[in-house]
Automatic annotation (TrEMBL):
It comes from the Bacteria. It is found in: Membrane. It is a multi-pass membrane protein. Gene3D superfamilies: Amino acid/polyamine transporter I. Residues 21-437 form the Amino acid permease/ SLC12A domain. It holds the Pfam family AA_permease. This is Amino acid permease. PANTHER family: GABA PERMEASE, GAMMA-AMINOBUTYRIC ACID PERMEASE. Keywords: Membrane, Transmembrane, Transmembrane helix, Transport. The chain crosses the membrane at residues 21-45, 51-68, 99-120, 126-147, 159-180, 200-226, 247-267, 287-309, 337-355, 361-382, 394-416, 422-438.
Length: 449
């Protein structure tokens, strides 16, 4: 989901990102620890049929990005995706969508800080909580200094991830063609442990939320594109290329893993990329992947602070958040919002250490399915705006209808597993809380007037 702040808005941040920053952020934005490690849980849950989950989720992300791009290009002064929802679905929906999206990425700040701290703790003899605090403070300072510094860091971190995935794909294809490593038994690997669909179609549906969680990141490129000189052109370019990036980085790499090793050898929490490379016979694969995963974690932490701060500043500018966060620095940076989001991330990281099985688990669950709600609201906004200005929209109306049905099917599928039900319940509670907050805000404002 994109948060687009156009430079024409007086209260919106402006930046000096270059096209090369946006290009590399677009390539690397969809690559994170969710692919390198999190894919193991999805594979273990659904088996080879997980490719259906990746294909369906990737298609949903592509459609939402294209719908969003149409709205922003058809009405370039609309501002952000929150404004799209506000104009298309009303102020209550805009308020809820903005806060849900902020909440999702704010939880990611704490989660990624802990993940990075655990990885670094293997090399540095410091407590995990100390390293986590240090990571958040360091990345916070990077975002506070300038937008260009954020873009430069994301450029190099994304480059590492892109090279790793493309290198793995080249290596996997070479192994399938018997150029390197022992010849893999593709048919056996795909049919072992109960066949291609070992746990049924509902397991595929249950895997979709975690797959969707791993794919969230495309929007960081759209956010960055809005802070370039040619915002409109870069936004259009990013939204068009999303599908190709997902196809190469997710579908191809996961398909290669499933062809190279039996899916039953992939265990949740252990990188399937490492398992595949060890099967091929690549020396030092675990250490190499640790470095790549660490770069992915820091990249995600960097993007999370960037995205949450822009979301919070945009909400504050619309009077949907405390106006204190709307203030920009002389460099046109939302420094107050950056500091506030980083502080919340520290609190989330603290919860993961002090109460990992209660508070932190609840926070993860409360943010786990909210992105489905946000996507649904964006689709509904597109349908509404399309009715008003149909000549400016290209995507057929039936595509948004099918997308809404798909989201409903995923939600129903989540009810068939204990973890899915708990995530759905906690996320529903988040929606209720933010909607209640909107009603309270409206009541307070009406009393003042």
């Amino acid at each position: 989901m994109a948060i687009i702040h156009h430079t024409s808005h007086e209260n919106a941040p402006t930046g000096t990102l270059q096209d090369r920053h946006v290009t590399m952020i677009a390539l690397g934005g969809v690559i994170g620890a969710g692919l390198f490690v999190g894919s193991s849980a999805s594979i273990a849950l659904a088996g080879p049929a997980v490719l259906l989950a990746y294909a369906a989720t990737g298609l949903l992300v592509v459609i939402v990005m294209r719908l969003l791009g149409e709205m922003l290009l058809a009405r370039p002064g609309i501002g952000s995706f929150v404004d799209c929802v506000r104009v298309g679905c009303g102020p209550a929906a805009g308020f809820v969508a903005g806060w849900l999206y902020w909440f999702f990425w704010a939880i990611v700040i704490g989660a990624e800080a802990i993940a990075g701290a655990i990885a670094i703790s293997e090399w540095v003899a410091l407590p995990v909580w100390v390293i986590a605090i240090g990571l958040i403070i360091t990345v916070n300072l990077l975002n506070l200094i300038s937008v260009r510094l954020f873009g430069e860091c994301e450029f190099w971190l994304s480059l590492i991830k892109v090279i790793c995935v493309l290198g793995f794909c080249a290596l996997g294809l070479a192994a399938l063609l018997h150029f390197v490593g022992p010849p893999p038994s593709v048919v056996h690997n795909l049919n072992t442990g109960g066949g291609p669909v070992p746990h049924g179609i509902f397991a595929v549906l249950t895997a979709i939320p975690s797959v969707l969680f791993s794919m969230i990141g495309s929007e960081s490129a759209t956010v960055a594109a809005a802070e370039t000189k040619d915002a409109g052109g870069n936004i259009a370019k990013v939204t068009r290329s999303t599908g190709l990036r997902i196809m190469v980085f997710y579908l191809l790499s996961v398909a290669l893993i499933l062809c190279l090793v039996p899916w039953t050898n992939i265990h949740p929490g252990h990188s399937p990329f490492v398992t595949a490379m060890e099967t091929i016979g690549i020396p030092g694969a675990p250490f190499l992947m640790k470095v790549v995963i660490l770069s992915a974690v820091i990249s995600c932490l960097n993007s999370s602070i960037y995205i949450t701060s822009r979301t919070l500043q945009g909400l504050a500018a619309r009077k949907d958040a405390p106006s204190w966060f709307a203030k920009l620095s002389k460099q046109r940076l939302p420094q107050r919002a950056i500091a506030g989001c980083s502080l919340f991330g520290l609190i989330v990281a603290g919860c993961s250490i002090l109460s990992p099985d209660v508070l932190f688990a609840f926070l993860l669950g409360a943010s786990g399915a909210v992105i489905l709600v946000v996507y649904a609201l964006v689709i509904c906004a597109h349908r509404s705006l399309r009715d008003e200005q149909s000549a400016l929209f290209v995507m057929p109306r039936w595509i948004s209808t099918v997308s809404l049905i798909g989201i409903a099917v995923v939600i129903i599928g989540m009810l068939y597993s204990a973890s899915g039900r708990s995530t759905l319940f906690a996320s529903t509670l988040s929606v209720i809380v933010f909607y209640a907050a909107y009603r309270i805000k409206e009541a307070v404002q009406s009393q003042r007037t």
